[in-house]
Amino acid sequence: MGRTAAATVARERAHLLIRLAAIALGGTLVLLAGVGATSLAALVLVLYLAAAVSVRYYPLLQRVPFVVPVLDLAAVTGLVFALPLALGSWILYAFAIGVAALRSGPLGAVAATALAVVGYDATLVARGEQARATDLWPVQALIAIGLVIAEIVWALGREEVDTLWSRIHARALSGLTRQREPDEVLRALVHELARLQSVRGAWVWALGPDQRVRTTVTIGAAPAAEMVVSAESLRALRSPSALERIVPELAGLSIPISVEPALTVGVALDAIHEEDRTMTAGAIHDLVGDAASLLSAAFERTRREAELRALDDAARAIAEIDGERTQAGVLASTVLGAGRIASGRAAIVRPSDGMVVVGDLPGGPLAELARDRRLPAIVSASVAPLASQTLGSDTTVALVNLSEGRVLAALGSPEVLTARLAPLESVARAARDRLALLAERDALQLAATELGRDVQSLGGALRAKEDALTTAVHELRNPLTAVHGYATLMSRNLQAVQGQLTQLERLMADLLSTEQQPGDEGPVDAAAQARQAIARARIRGARIDLDGPVEPVRVAIGEARFAQLLDNLISNAIKYSPTGEPILLSITVDQNVGKVSVIDHGMGIPAEHLARIFDRFYRVGGTADAVAGEGLGLSICKEIVTAHGGKIWAESEGAGHGSTFAFTLPLAVGAATT
Asked: Domain 515-666 falls in which CATH fold?
């Protein structure tokens, strides 16, 4: 059973008890009246008892018009008429007034009192011969009793209403305190207001520019979503006033909330009694007042959270900027960070020509807003024609100086940009510092690169000079060795000594020349030079055979370089061959090239070393300690052959099977090709 049903049952039970008490008192009065009045009074009592019980246990009788209101007054009037006036039976009207007060409140008590007075007066008129002047005082007593009962009922009802309003207020306040966001608090407030008795609708007005009022949260009856109000209505919105002053077709209340931005709560009421309207208005004022403090706290909390988010976004953007290694990366991170802080889009532009450096915003309108303006600034796009047309007149732009000739622009709401201009400046300042640091680094890197090229060039020259010196030392060693041998055997062959000295002079002159090109040297007879090289080698005790044509084989190389080639290859074959083992020097002609081969039966070369045998300073493992040398002779041969358009290679079947070193050179122009 619900609370309302339980209250109804309790009220009906009280009605029955009051009626039974009236019947009991009436019975006592009947007994006191004696036999003369017993029959009529007893009949009235029996009928009254039957009616009271029937009304209590047969609810359908309560729906019959005038049955319940008239029942008590009619029964009491009948008893008063049937009983002697001297018994004071008028007191039974107090019970009827009490029942009416329980059923209809103070108004019921007053109405029942008036009817009781009328009924008693009618009884006095009907029994005029028995009435006395003293019988009129009960009229005043009835009026007093009725007024007292009415006041008691009103006080009890008021206490009940106050308790009900307190319960409603506590419930509504509990719902409001659970909300955190301003919009949630407003929705909860409107919802609780709409639940109040006699409320047709509730809403929130947001005051905008140009005397425009926008209706936001609404439940039930509400005005237009947006309207332009008069100056008088605008003043009414800023102070508690009647709703009719703002919206004439609606009756109710308009209560402002002291928050920023300015808000006003509107409540439409039904046509109710003034007393009920006053009570409802008091409850509405109390609820809106409590909601105002909660709403103010919610707005403050929202602002602080937004500031914390802005600071967090700024710190994140600064960290990203500091982590960038290029100027382009710094600019991109700056735009992304500014967009997050402003909760909108951002770009970097040049005010001088409207060029967008980074971002997807139109540069011309932003340049128009930034040009000739002191920065930082928050500007409405409506102040410039091009910006107003392109971006929209209601767009707001924050402008912050980034560096010379560049401006950081961010779009957003005026409130957000105003609150977050300082974080935007912090991001721009971090970007400026990072750009300056990277520019300095790039300048140092460029200088270091140029210095590195200079050092590399000098190093190359030094290495070339060192290589030339190393080559010269190596090449001078063979003629000097031969000279030493010739000097020892001078008595045997002074002409050979003279030839070696002549070759040494040519070689030194060639080494000192820096302008001679391979093509400038004259042709040489390979066969004749081979015989001379064999003669030089035989001084050292080597056994060398020649296999070549009788006619000249003229190749395109100078005499000194060709002699250097033969001496190096023959010397190499002698070093890696057993003493007395014959060496074969072969010369052949193939098409347009002459081929020279030096074949020995010495130590041989493992297959894995053939590819690197001509590398500078490279020596086959196991021979470095057994045979003296620097590993330069074969590399010099390769350089000479390559410089003259030829090829050189080595062949060997492996260790212990000897080696063949061969090279080809182009034949001189006009030489035989057979």
From this structure: Heat Shock Protein 90 (3.30.565)
